[in-house]
């Protein structure tokens, strides 16, 4: 699982950071452990209608800007990219991975599943709802298959990544994923060696060699943990910001991604960079 140095061309380079980015990061930094609620759509069977699922996740920073961690021994990518794309991590064996990837097993990279991430910044009395699609980055993220899920993930994320100075030499997708694994504590890395989540304890012997609770993983290339580990990136299409700090004058704004169109479509909307902003009733 060694990082490779594969360069992939941009099809579009976002012009400026999202106008909500700095305030969002300031608010999220005030949340204990930076937790949020992630909602996905779960389909009990191929013919059944989708049903909502929600769980608490941990915000791991923005894609391309790996948060610094002096305890992380993983090699870092050069500071080439930045983005406005929230990252969290998950175990591929959990249902949300399949719900996001559209594949029950979610063996490789893929995605496009609709999600909503809800952050409550109590210190600022503000709720942030991030709506869009999510993309799973697996061990094959540097794969070159013409029809592979990894290629599609890279194409989608590159559309929303900014290259400082236009230089991309030496930047590796796999290295960035390993960096996120390394940013976890050894105990958290050890959870990826847990028995399969959601399987009844009385179902029989734990399948898989080396699985068990309470393990600590120091090796950043631990084969069992890395097989189960996934980084997940959210590509926002809407940001819903509700400022409830003043109960007599609550305010709410909706940000909609417009890309390079630069067109107003909402009554009273204002285009700021690649986003349209409009104030709505709270």
TrEMBL record:
Segment forming the signal sequence: none
GO MF assignments: FMN binding
Domain Pyridoxamine 5'-phosphate oxidase Alr4036 family FMN-binding: 18-137
InterPro entries per record: Pyridox_Oxase_Alr4036_FMN-bd, Split_barrel_FMN-bd
Pfam families for the chain: Pyridox_oxase_2
Record protein name field: Pyridoxamine 5'-phosphate oxidase Alr4036 family FMN-binding domain-containing protein
């Amino acid at each position: 699982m060694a990082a490779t140095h594969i360069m992939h061309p941009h099809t579009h380079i976002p012009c400026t950071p999202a106008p909500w980015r700095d305030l969002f990061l300031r608010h999220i930094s005030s949340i204990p452990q930076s937790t949020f609620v992630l909602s996905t759509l779960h389909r009990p069977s191929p013919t059944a209608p989708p049903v909502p699922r929600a769980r608490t996740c941990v915000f791991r920073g923005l894609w391309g800007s790996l948060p610094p961690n002096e305890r992380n021994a993983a090699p870092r990518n050069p500071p080439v990219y930045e983005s406005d794309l929230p990252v969290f991590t998950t175990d591929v064996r959990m249902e949300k991975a399949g719900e996001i990837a559209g594949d029950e097993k979610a063996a490789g990279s893929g995605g496009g599943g609709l999600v909503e991430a809800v952050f409550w910044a109590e210190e600022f009395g503000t709720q942030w709802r991030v709506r869009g699609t999510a993309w799973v980055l697996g061990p094959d993220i540097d794969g070159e298959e013409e029809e592979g899920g990894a290629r599609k993930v890279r194409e989608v994320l590159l559309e929303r990544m900014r290259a400082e100075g236009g230089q991309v030499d030496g930047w590796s997708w796999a290295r960035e994923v390993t960096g996120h694994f390394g940013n976890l504590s050894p105990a958290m890395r050890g959870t990826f060696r847990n028995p399969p989540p959601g399987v009844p304890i009385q179902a029989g012997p734990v399948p898989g060699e080396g699985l068990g609770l309470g393990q600590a993983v120091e090796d950043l290339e631990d084969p069992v943990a890395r097989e189960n580990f996934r980084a997940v990136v959210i590509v926002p299409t809407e940001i819903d910001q509700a400022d409830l700090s003043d109960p007599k004058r609550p305010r709410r704004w909706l940000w909609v991604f417009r890309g390079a169109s630069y067109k107003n479509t909402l009554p009273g909307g204002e285009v700021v960079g690649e986003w349209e902003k409009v104030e709505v009733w709270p």
